[in-house]
Structures are given as structure tokens and as C-alpha cells.
Amino acid sequence: MKKRLLAMMAAVVAPAGLLVAFAGPGEAAEPGVVRTDKGLVASETVGDALVYDGIPYAAPPVGALRWKAPQPARPWTGVRASKTGSVCAQQANSEAPDGSTAEDCLYLNVTTPAKPSTKPRAVVVWIPGGGFFSGAGSSYEASKFAARGDVVVVTVNYRLGIFGFFGYPGLPGSGTFGLQDQQAALRWVQRNAGGFGGDPRNVTVAGESAGGMSVCAQLTSPTSTGLFAKAIMQSGSCAFNWADNSQYPGQTADSPWIPVSRVQATGKEWADSKHCTTLECLRGLKADVLVDDLLQFTQIGYGGSPVVPFSPAKAMKAGLFHRVPIISGNNHDEANGWLAAFGDIKDYPALVRNMVGAQKAPQVLRQYPQSRYESPAAAWGAVTTDRIWSCTQVATDQQAARKVPVYAYEFADKHSPIAAPGLGAAHATELPYLFRLGGYDFPMSETQQQLSNQMIDYWTAFARTGNPNGPDRPHWSPTGAKAVNGLSLAPTDQGGIQRVNLTAEHQCGFWSGLSTPA
Length: 518
Fold this sequence. Notes:
This is Carboxylic ester hydrolase. The chain is of the alpha/beta class.
């Protein structure tokens, strides 16, 4: 059952010889070439931006370095051409149709406006989503985002699945290697942002889905102190969890965060199945053997290292997080993206009974009557969106807003160019409004293009100043810590951008009062 859920949650050699006189990191080399702390990198022009693809930020985590903290990248000579780095090992999916067995994958990509600037630019570090088992930084082509917003964008690969979140008794860092990679990338930014015109003191860490959950983990990690000044969590909150039977019958309650002892116990069972009794034996297994079992390790282990000493959900609730401004939000119909995977939903009341029990089911059915929706599937989509996605995001916003400014939002375009007909603003459908996914310009109407521009303007103003507001777009106020008020982001022909009470819109008071297990 876990594998089924995970599958549904997936949402995409340097040539030598050109030598220049030495310039330290952050100093200019020649036009289109930047010296990093490990060597020179060249750019290519994409639209109104310069793109530096495939820069190694850590050594390949292979052989004896498998399941160890990321180590420094090796220096190189000459100029490293802009070339997409390997996608981290993962099973076949929409972003990696042939899958990947590459462990040498700790690369990042830097995009800067082509236009020179007289002052350092804000930096946005983007952590990809993909359920912690798929995804790549190279899927998020950021030329428009960088040029329009006058920011530097860094997109990151990190180890996934069994490579990034494996645990074993006595293994330091169990369940956190992917998060350690993200921190290594953020440290690379601190050392090298200046060379690309970026300001290392003005870094925003951002991500969607598993990337948003990663941002939460970094917000609550003691070892990320000083690595960023702002945070953006899209469709991935600290409080995210699912109850028994919350999406399909037989599903067990769980969370992205689990005790490290559980990760290690799973790792021991897996090692036994491979007839390995030592880490040396496990590190000797071929990558394709691990890829076959990638989905057994897709949760972050807490309590075993200073990287994640506590559950991020509990840390946020206790106020143990970095005091930085936050943008936080969801899509209006998050769960609809998985409705087709559950088959033809006919018995909506039975699903509700499985989720909350026979005693509480009548309350849910009164609150979400099937007659209000176009189909039983649509009714079930509303229930699961509100319970699993929207109200956990609202809870995170309430907790964070007690200490820092939180700008809450909801993406609400029912006809995103990547949404299947009839599914509304489902999971990940906001992404083409910010990035050229896969380098592709998805067709948009004039009003959708306007919304895309406004969203980029909000996001990048926030990255520059900590405040998303500016001309030519509605005012966005930070939410209070009780009712979560934010912006609904829709094209003008669907109501436009307007204020919304997210607590009420998704009936979070009802779900809080129902007290379903989590």
C-alpha cells in the first residue's frame, strides 16, 4: 500500500583547455565565465538570462561515500561547460522516463539575469519535489523567473529514496542524507553566490511538495542556521500527515517524519534480505539493485542526528524554528490529482466511514454532502484535500505566524495548462506559472500569463525584501495566528487575485473539532 501511495505522489564531462589568470571565488574571470571555489564554469544564454548548468557542489557519494555526509567537490582545471548534470538515481517517471542509476548526481544549476547589476541580487535556492523518490533541479528552467524578478536562482539535486533516506543501526546520519545534501548546496551558495552576482546574506530557500517539506525540515534544523534569510513552502507543510484510510482503504496513518529507529529497523530488514550484515557489504551492492527498492525509504528520520533532532512537525509547534519570513500555501484542489489513480469511486460514504469511523462519518457527510459535488470522486477529493493538505498547511501557518511574518496563499486556477480536465487546481499545477518545466513554455491564455507574471513578482519581491508587495498587483498582508487569511491566486476571468480566509474555505475548524487520528 505504501508503494502505491508513493507512486501516486510523484508529480520532472567538462572540457579542459581554456585557462585564465587566477581569480578568487566571487571575482570576475571573463564574460560568461565565473570562478567558483573549485574551478571555472561557463554559461549559456537562455532568453534574458545566463544559465550555468551542472555545477558539482559535493563529491560523488559513491563507494565508501554512499550513505555518508556530503564531502567537498574535487577541484577541476579549465572551464566547465554548462551541461545538465546526472539526475539522481530514481525509478522511471515523467521527469526521468528511463529512470536513473546515477549516484554521481550532486549538481546544481545557477540562473542569473543577463543584464548586469550594480548591486548584489537576492538568491532563491529551489528544492525539487517528487515524494523524496523522484525529481531533479534541472526540470525547473528558471530563466523567466530570474530575469523578470531580478534574482539569482539555484536549483538543486539531492539524493533520493534509498540513497538519500536509508538508515541502519549505528549508521550516522540515518534517514537524513538527502537533507544534508540540501544543506551542502546552501553552503555552496554562501561561498559562491557573489561570483554570480548574488548576495549570500539574502538567500531564500524554496520548494514544492517534498521540496516544501524539505524547506520545513531546514527551517527546524539546527545545522541550517545562517544558511538562508527567508523560506517558501509550496504544497508541503510541517504538519502534513495522513490518517488511517485517509486516501484509500487499508492505508495506515503516517507522516513524512518518522523516528530514526524506525528507519534503521527498516534498513536492517532490507539488509537481511540482501544477505548483508555490514555497511561495507551494502555499499558494495550495485546501484540498480538499490533502485529496485528505492521506495522503501522515502521518509525523513528524526532523533538520530543534529540535522533533524526532533520531528519538524513538533519543532514547529513548539516554536523551535529559524525566525525568517515565510510564504506558505497550497493549491485549492490538491488531492484531485490522485483521484484517477484510485479508480472509479462510487461508494463515497463507505470511504468516509473508513476514514473517520462509523460514529463520525455522518458529520463529515453532512459537511461534505455528495449532492454538492459533480461526482462521488469530486466529493472525496474535497474531503482529502481539506483534511490532508489544506488544514495541515493552515496549522503550520498558525504556528509560524506567532513568531514571524507568514504570507499565506492558495493557487486557484482551475484550468492550469498541466491540469487534467475537470481536476481543478490540483497538486503541482502552479509550477508552470513560475518555471519553464523541462524548458517548455506551456500554452497560457492572456489572463493566465498575467497571473504568472504577478506570481513571479510576488515571489521575487519577497526574496528581495521579505515583503511580496509591489505595484500592479493586489496587496498581500501577512496572516494572523488564528484564522489564516491569505490570497487566492486565480486569473481575472476566474475572479482574479483576492483575499480568502483559508481556515474557513477548507473547513479547518470542522476538522479540528472532529479530532480525527493523525
